[in-house]
Amino acid sequence: MVNAGDMNGSGNLMDFLDEPFPDVGTYEDFHTIDWLREKSRDTDRHRKITSKSKESIWEFIKSLLDAWSGWVVMLLIGLLAGTLAGVIDLAVDWMTDLKEGVCLSAFWYSHEQCCWTSNETTFDDRDKCPQWQKWSELLVSQSEGASAYILNYFLYIMWALCFAFLAVSLVRVFAPYACGSGIPEIKTILSGFIIRGYLGKWTLLIKTVTLVLVVSSGLSLGKEGPLVHVACCCGNFFSSLFSKYSKNEGKRREVLSAAAAAGVSVAFGAPIGGVLFSLEEVSYYFPLKTLWRSFFAALVAAFTLRSINPFGNSRLVLFYVEYHTPWYMAELFPFILLGVFGGLWGTLFIRCNIAWCRRRKTTRLGKYPVLEVIVITAITAIIAYPNPYTRRSTSELISELFNDCGALESSQLCDYINDPNMTRPVDDIPDRPAGPGVYSAMWQLALALVFKIVITIFTFGMKIPSGLFIPSMAVGAMAGRMVGIGVEQLAYHHHDWIIFRNWCRPGADCVTPGLYAMVGAAACLGGVTRMTVSLVVIMFELTGGLEYIVPLMAAAVTSKWVADAFGKEGIYEAHIHLNGYPFLDVKDEFTHRTLATDVMRPRRGEAPLSVLTQDSMTVEDVETLIKETDYNGFPVVVSRDSERLIGFAQRRELILAIKNARQRQDGVVSNSIVYFTEDPPELPPNSPHPLKLRRILNLSPFTVTDHTPMETVVDIFRKLGLRQCLVTRSGRLLGIITKKDVLRHMAQMANQDPESIMFN
User: Does the UniProt entry include the keyword Transmembrane (predicted)?
Assistant: First the structure.
């Protein structure tokens, strides 16, 4: 028999686990992390640092640096996210204008910047200056006429196609993960899923560059959603510089939650809205400490963007607006109607977009992503150019729709018939009858609305960066502005009606159409994403007025109720399910009366569960079991006869432990006995050295009995972030339930295809 004393140096895995051991504790790609294990590892690390800090001044300083590393990471994320957002805003502004003309004094100036520097610009023609020339003026010296229009039209389409082709080519060749919005994948990653490379440096670089290109191309998409992905890439990069985060997937996700908040902060200039968005929409695990750090990261990001001042108006977004007129109770009815429209639009968009994306995945259409992008860009540019409301960038369109009509506005939407005898303050212009410009603008807006609704369905989900916030807000803002003008004209022409008599007297400034546009934008965005609290706060931060919170809340809640009546999934959850990611949504309810025994594997008629025994298998047996199965781990039992559960061993750690033992320990061969007990088993003389693997064994795996209701099991998986759960009866192992099994069972109970859940 081999005695225990001989084995101290050779049989104990502890010896080489305490040294730097590559890949221990890491996870394979497209697998779920074990939240409990990550939490436990961080607690052990923190306990070790605390005890060491009492030994010397240097260890104490190291413990302080460790404590401050979280705040340093947040500072760096905020600075980089704010800087990238500012650069993207400036580049988009310039490249969008490049489709229509060029600045002769400095080609890197946008149209607005070019005319700022001109001394020959008049107030009435503030968009016209000699330094800015359209392509027709530059190439054929004509600014008016059919030939000039056709040349400008042709070059507009060519620039759009050029930008879109360059973007899709860069994504396809260098960073396939840089496509889409990124928020469905961010939600899945924050729930504990591993997608290697999704937050990598190449993805960050390519997404930043291509985001500028696709927004400038005029496609019906926004940069706000992808900015969350960009900020999370920044978070992943900086967390990899600190071992506290790089070696613990749970801690890394706390950083990514804060980075998501910084992304929304710079996207909308809404730091508080960003924190609430991260809490409400994307984060799975959000402790109080992460809330403070998210707030700090969002603050730094917003401050950085404000310092860059990309729009030259000291605001963080292009469509910041202030209103001077209060709203009245009678207006709640049209606000709620806009909420209903937002809910219906959200439902229509989700169903049509998911159907189109499913068709893209299952047919030959998905094999030609470059061609698809080129065709959609060409259709968008050809239809968009003749209509001034679709030709301009979507952010500029939203800005114009949100604006209140002051005395200095030159927009068609403000072409009212003025009373020549009016002597009123500039910011208190009374309601007036609509002029011909307003009526033609209404027709153009109606056509633009239909176009946006249709083209956005086909654009979102292509193999380019594509955000949904701005197109959804544009749809709502157009509908809202038209409703607002309608209510305004109704109030002007019928001020003696009972609903207008009390609050809208002749000559008063009663209705603000821009407010209706803002409420409509909130309603449509809420209908598509199902955001509520964070949405209202983001919109409130955009306007800087507390007074309009009630209309926004009414529209957001109504749009959510209406959309939820047709289906509980928002667009991001729908795309998560479409891609088969293992995301266990906290919002999903499980009300069926099934038991753990109905879901566990093995089921009746299936092969028995693959297990390891505590001291009777050889290294070769373990390697054969690993080779023949693809399970993430194996339960360890006393023996195959008793099936008494001892613990659980992860597949990856078994592979690494055996590989390292063969390299570093003498005497470990294929027929060496593997044991998971504290003391070695009794072996005949001349047996090869046994291999002790107790160190990698989880001695307290989560277990439930076979009669535990699945409602409880689902709750446990949600709240503890488990990868798997063992099913026992009186300590005897019966089976195993994985996260994938839970998701497939939930899909089956909801009459959906359980095979759509593809990953573990």
Answer: yes
